[in-house]
Amino acid sequence: MAVTLLAQRPSAGVPRLSMTGVTKSFGGVHAIRQAEFHLMPGEVHALVGENGAGKSTLIKIASGAESFDTGQILIDGSPVTIRSAADALALRVATVYQEAQLFGQLTVAENTFLGRELTRGHRVDWAAQNEQVGRALATVGLSDEFATRKVEELSAAQQQQVSIAKALVGDARILILDEPSAILTDSEIENLFVAIRNLTAQGVSVIYISHRLDELFQIADVVTIMRDGVTLGTFDVGELSVGQIAEAMVGGEFAAAAGRQARGAAEVVLSMRELTSRRFHDVSLDLRSGEVVVLYGLVGSGVAEIAAAAYGQAPVLSGTMRLRGQPYRPTSPAQAKAQGVSMLPANRKREGLFSFQSIAFNICVGSLRLLKRLGVFTDAARERGVAASMIKTLAVKTPDAARSVSTLSGGNAQKVVLARQLVTLPDVLVLAEPTQGVDIGAKEEIHKIVDQLCERGAAVLIATSDLGEAMRIADRLIVIRNGTNFAQFAHGVGQAEVLAAASGELTREQERELARQEAI
Amino acid sequence: MSATTLTARRRERVLPPAVTGQELILIGVIALLWVLLALANPGFLAPYSIQNMLWRLAPVGIMAIGMTIIIVTAGIDISIAAILMVCSVTIAKLIAENGWNFWLAVGVSLVIGAALGAINGVLISYGRVPAIIITFGTANLFQFLGLRIFNSKTVNGLPAERGILGPGEGGRFLGLPIAFIIMVVLVAFAWYYLRHFPGGRHFYAIGDDERAAALAGVNVRRRIFLAYLVTGLLVGLAAAITIAGGTSTLDQNVGKGQELVTIAATVIGGTSIMGGRGSVLGAVLGALLVQTVSSGVTQLGWPSQLSNLFVGLFIVVAVGADLIRERRRKAKL
Prior knowledge:
The complex is a heterodimer.
Chain A: H1 2-5, E1 17-26, E2 29-39, E3 44-48, H2 55-62, E4 70-75, E5 78-79, H3 85-90, E6 93-96, H4 108-113, E7 119-120, E8 123-124, H5 126-139, H6 156-169, E9 174-178, H7 186-201, E10 205-209, H8 213-219, E11 222-227, E12 230-236, H9 242-250, E13 268-276, E14 283-288, E15 292-296, H10 303-310, E16 318-323, E17 326-327, H11 333-338, E18 341-344, H12 348-352, H13 359-364, E19 372-373, E20 377-378, H14 380-394, H15 410-422, E21 428-432, H16 440-455, E22 459-464, H17 467-473, E23 476-481, E24 484-490, H18 495-503, H19 508-519
Parallel strand pairs in A: 3-10, 3-11, 6-9, 9-10, 15-22, 15-23, 18-21, 21-22
Antiparallel strand pairs in A: 1-2, 1-4, 4-5, 7-8, 11-12, 13-14, 13-16, 16-17, 19-20, 23-24
Helix pairs in contact in A: 5-6, 9-18, 15-16
Chain B: H1 3-12, H2 21-40, H3 47-72, H4 80-96, H5 102-125, H6 131-150, E1 172-173, E2 176-177, H7 178-196, H8 198-208, H9 210-215, H10 220-243, H11 258-268, H12 280-299, H13 305-332
Antiparallel strand pairs in B: 1-2
């Protein structure tokens, strides 16, 4: 395995933060095992790994948001106890989570000091707060006049900078940044990097989590790679390539993923041309009946929004979509469905299930018109019949279709949502993160169902950030990066190659293309 | 970024503007109505008419202070009409049937109001049940309590004039009703507290994002509890002003509909029903608008249900404007 060939960083000096032998399990499943993480003073330490590799658990432990089973945390060589967010803050460990925890109605200064206001008499000392916040804002590259602006008036990037400034006012010496760049544009990321360098120059140590591997080479000194809850090692960034990191992250085991028969060319059912919305731009693709096209991209790349646009849940600004050759621009999922495009939402609990209702109701709710008797009543017997046959086909584990859907496990609930779409076979089926939070067995079954659907002639468009899944079921795999098609692969491509394309390294063709442009 | 620019800027704007756009619009609408009403009926601007209107404004304005704080935390209290009834009948009984001193009875009213508010507060903040459910329940409970105190009889024999809280000659200072002056002082204090004290700012943070407020170290439960307690206390005071109104008889309809008038005033004043935004100044202006409409409709001799129509329209416009603003703000992000 490639990892063993890499040189581990030699350790010298006393680390600012040491996590040794840290293990944490949730209900018997190890989230992290014997993790080793050593952060030196003034360094930017990247933490990378696939979804579920244990990165967030590790930083949650360091920031007091999560407890751990065994292991030890040391700061400057002495053991410390971090049991709550307050403990972490007292040890000057500050965390900026992915979703900013800011109050839109309050000013930047107020947000920063909320819960620890500076007061004179009993009143808030606005002047002192604004001044202190002004200094912190300067460190992250915002002018001090932002101190008195309402947070809701700021852009996402500015809010992110405010979150970091907020962490700095507490005099942090360890700053944890959880995917700070996911929502930022390139120039905004540049500003972020300047801010981070300012901090490290002052001796602050930064833990930087990112899925964009190309960034690491610009900002990080060292990188710790995690896979399946294990820290594989800490390496000098300069000694690795994006490809090597990607390979270490995914490991070798997916190379032999089950191959599938290439399907013959069929007619194009759904096409997109230069489709643009606020979250993605110039997306073009063709989807043929009987094939599975996977849109793969990192969180924030725009994958989810492209899928949403295909079933009318996200507004499109420009570009065209055609369905069976006819112009197609649905403005609601109901319209999409009427034209033969069905979807399976990513957030089952919120968007997919009627949790108080029976399994049968949940399966049949989308097709009640077909089940009507005398054009008025829903035929209960037929409803049960349809539900029972679906439960059998999909192997939903339940004794009775009349049971409440809330009694099902995540994977089985997902099958129920899927079953709803299958009562009437759609021309196009859009799936967003179809197996998120689903156990491995159910995942396999869901993939089988998708295969069956294709064989019956449906065209399937899947948006996912799960690389293993993308590799497994795609006939064609389109990598979305920064909101647009970045690269396309056929089934059977190497996983590391896809990951490298999605997270920062250019494909060979693109390198050549770029070289050609530079030559002109 | 020199020290001088910082100092200069500090004077400019530390907080959102003291008077919001919606409040300015309200002032304009009220002024316009007053001009129109004065043209239609010159008696509208007579001192007696104005004094009477400001006196009537006082109880609603005082309750609207509490309601604003509650709605800012993304809560609501629909039990205040019932609390008003319990407090009113208690004062009336104590002075008319037990011969108590008025102020002593008012003290009891304040205690009862605070206690009933505290019941709401405990259930909502510590019981973690939505405010609308809890206060809907307690409204019926308090109503029952009030009716028991009435004991299916009206309270008769209240003295005709109850001094300095009343609408009459004895209740004025520099020509203004003292009840109104008390309201103004309370509004001014609440306005300043909500803007400049950490505790006041925390109400806004809670309404904005309760979880994030808790993570930032705000004692969310205690704040929410206090909002309902203070509101109960203020309702107890409003009851005292109501009783000082000068009618000799108090019947079981006292307070009826006051929760809706108060919520209407608060919402018309620009307090967002989603929480996180609003001011007591706006709420009092909203109360004044509602009061102007109902006084105007009466003085013009129009059917009184027209008053409901107008207030209803104002609510729809105010809430609609709030939602449109909210949507624009979201679209911008």
